[in-house]
Amino acid sequence: MDHNELSASNPAAPTHRIQLSEIALIGVYEISKILTAPTRLETTLANVLNLLSSFMQMRHGTIVLLADDGVPEVAVGAGWNEETCPQPQHRYPERAIGQIVATGVPLVVHNVADHELFDASDVARLASEGTKVSFMGVPIRAGDRVVGTLTVDRSWDGDSVFRFDSDVRFLAMIANLIGQTVKLHRVVARDRDRLIEESHRLQKEITKLQPAPATRARVSGIIGESPAIRQVLDRVAIVAKSNATMLLRGESGTGKELFARALHELSPRASHAFVKVNCAALAESVLESELFGHEKGAFTGAVATRKGRFELADGGTLFLDEIGEISLSFQAKLLRVLQEGEFERVGGTKTIKADVRLITATNKNLEEAVRKGEFRADLYYRISVVPVILPPLRERTSDIPLLAARFLERFNEENGRELVFSTQAMQVLKSCYFPGNVRELENCVQRTATFATGDAIVAADFACEQEQCLSATLWKGKASVETWPSAVGGLGPYAGAPSAAPAEPQRSIAAPAPGPERPAQTAQPELSAGDASERERLLEAMEKSGWVQAKAARIMGLTPRQIGYALRKHDIEIKKF
User: Fold this and answer.
1) d(CA 224, CA 443)
2) Rounded distance between C-alpha atoms, residue 142 and residue 183, angstroms
3) What is the DSSP letter of 73?
4) Could you tell me if residue 570 is inside a domain?
5) pTM of the prediction?
6) Are residues 547 and 511 in the same domain?
7) Domain end: 390, 409, 432, which one?
8) DSSP notation for 263-279
9) Do 82 and 127 fall into the same domain?
10) Minimal CA–CA distance to 163: which of 202, 90, 220, 110?
11) Sign of the CA dihedral 161, 166, 172, 178?
12) Both 546 and 462 in a single domain?
């Protein structure tokens, strides 16, 4: 009986057909939302099956994807979980799946127990306790190739052929959406593998090549002769010769913009524009207009056509600072520009091409953001072709005198003074932790020079010597640390929070030493020389704090200076990890 005869003999058929079409429309809409979510492919497919179970009276559902050689490489079922179900094997009727792949047409079996494609083990798995089970499967296509199958089974109670036909059509629509998603995932995976391979190749070249003497010349604005800073400059000099996208990583205040400008000045694009944009300082709608430009009348206030930063940087370099702060929706727009090298202005239809060398920077843990779905993995691989990690100031303390002298020289020029640092004052600067890095050092020098009364800055002029250091208020108590991959593959401190106090007694801005005019926190307990258990309590606190003196001081209610004095008094050797 065809569909017209079924409708004529059964007045309820049109209503049934309308209900099924509405359910199918809702199902397609909900499943399309799942397929566009930035999650692992297996998780996405399992979520599709979970949702299908609410639209169809199915007992089991399976999606099988084939590798290029035709061998199944992905098989997930409803309820699949990455942690508890790593990769199910042989949990589907292989001969039935094989026929769907070979013929490229749907397969409908009313009773699996009576069909030759299902052996005894398949029947035992699908039709337990004598239950009659029907089976439906449709091919998943990517272009003109069958790349997998979508199958469901359910208890068969004599449903009409019409119901089977409508369900197969519904499954075919879902399989079509899955095929498009699988194709996109595989394109992204190939692109990612190519970028990783290119990154590894460039890293090997950087390791092998030695920069020419000219590349070791001082770069404008960057001060330092420490091994850490010279290593970064050598890498920049090598990478500058290519057009590879560069990602600058490092804590806030390490000078990412200066290094981006240095890369531009050392590159063949030095004669063209260097354009910078702080992505965190602009709303998404404003950022789109800033980067891509807009046409006249595109929005309220657009009184004239305006070029975007990509156009202005044509032939030169575009520096996107705080790249980790842009939204997921804008990440997709930016990815298209990076992949295709073309874009349209806001409110425009003309496609514009721009030849731009892209440099990005962030102090955010992008790997963690990708894992949480806050940053697109495909964009991460696109911008992280050559990552360079800038060292924090605590790893280049030999540069502190050079930097401090330059900042003081600039202050003298602007204010008509002739201040210099005393030996004790320089020792104070070298012993500070500076979580805010170079930017904080500059502020410290300017603030101290402003209040200095003599011809030379002495130790007592510093705010930390008077317990008035504003940075101490900001950083005090910040013990949590995020980590991110270092340049050599290990883990390093991240996001500016102190990871550990130095092993030797050292003045830290997070715990300023008491000044000469103020007693050292008299409300706190003092260590008593006559206390027999003092050494044991001190050792216990150091063990609990991982031998970090600042943390041990907080545990015992003392200052870091008092802890240092007690360690020396009891001749306790500091453990270094």
Assistant:
1) 18
2) 6
3) E
4) yes
5) 0.53
6) no
7) 390
8) HHHTSTTTTS-EEEEEG
9) yes
10) 110
11) negative
12) no
Pick the most confident of 413-422, 465-474, 508-517.
Answer: 413-422
Q: For the segment 390-411, what is each residue's pLDDT rounded down to a tens digit?
A: 999 988 889 999 999 999 999 9
Per-residue pLDDT of 324-370, as tens digits, reads 999 888 888 888 888 888 888 888 888 888 889 999 999 988 998 99
| Whether residue 543 sits in one domain with residue 511 | no
Question: How many angstroms separate the CA atoms of 183 and 146, rounded?
Answer: 11
**SS3 (DSSP) at 511:** strand
Query: Residue 485: inside a domain, yes or no?
Result: yes
DSSP string, 420-475: EE-HHHHHHHHH---TTHHHHHHHHHHHHHHH--SSEE-GGGSGGGGT--HHHHHH
Bin 115: left if φ > 0, else alpha if -120 < ψ < 50, else beta.
beta
Residue 197 falls within a domain, yes or no?
A: no
Residue 490 sits in a domain whose CATH number is 1.10.8.60
Q: Which residues pair with 351 in a beta bridge?
A: 344
Whether residue 234 is found in the same domain as residue 356: yes
Q: Residue 121 and residue 114: Cα distance in Å, rounded?
A: 13
Cβ atoms within 10 A of the Cβ of 327, count?
13
Contact at 8 Å (CB) between 75 and 88? yes
Residue carrying structure tokens 């409803």: 78
Please name the helix (run of DSSP H) or strand (run of DSSP E) that holds residue 232, with its range, or none. Answer: helix 227-239
Give the Cα separation of 363 and 114 in Å (integer): 63
Judge whether residue 318 has pLDDT over 90: yes
Phi-psi map region of 158: left, alpha, beta (phi>0 left; psi -120 to 50 alpha)? left
433 is in which domain, residue-wise?
A: 394-518
- In 3D space, the residue among 279, 269, 258, 272 whose CA is nearest the CA of residue 321 turns out to be 279
Q: Name the phi and psi angles at 190, rounded to 5.
A: -65, -40
Q: Of 374, 390, 406, at which residue does a domain stop? A: 390
Helix (H) or strand (E) holding 337: helix 328-340
DSSP 248-308: EE--TTS-HHHHHHHHHHTSTTTTS-EEEEEGGGS-HHHHHHHHHEE-TTSSTT--S-EE-
Q: How far apart are CA 512 and CA 525, in angstroms?
A: 18
Query: Kind and range of the H or E element at 406?
Result: helix 400-415
pLDDT digits (tens, 9 = 90+) for 135-175: 899 999 888 889 899 998 888 766 554 467 888 888 888 88
The two structure tokens encoding residue 507: 């003045």
The position carrying tokens 């499967």 is 137
Cβ within 8 Å of residue 310, ≥6 positions away: 291, 292, 293, 318, 337, 343, 352, 354, 356
Residue type, 359: I
> What's the distance, CA 333 to chain centroid?
17
Chain segment 419-472, per-residue pLDDT in tens: 999 989 898 888 887 888 998 999 999 999 999 988 899 988 888 877 777 676
Residues 64 and 93 in one domain: yes
Q: State how far the alpha carbon of 478 is from the alpha carbons of 340, 442, 502, 551, in Å.
A: 43, 22, 15, 10
Q: State the total domains in the chain.
A: 4
Whether 26 is in a domain gets the answer yes
Q: Report the amino acid identity of residue 391.
A: P
**323/260 Cα distance (integer angstroms):** 14
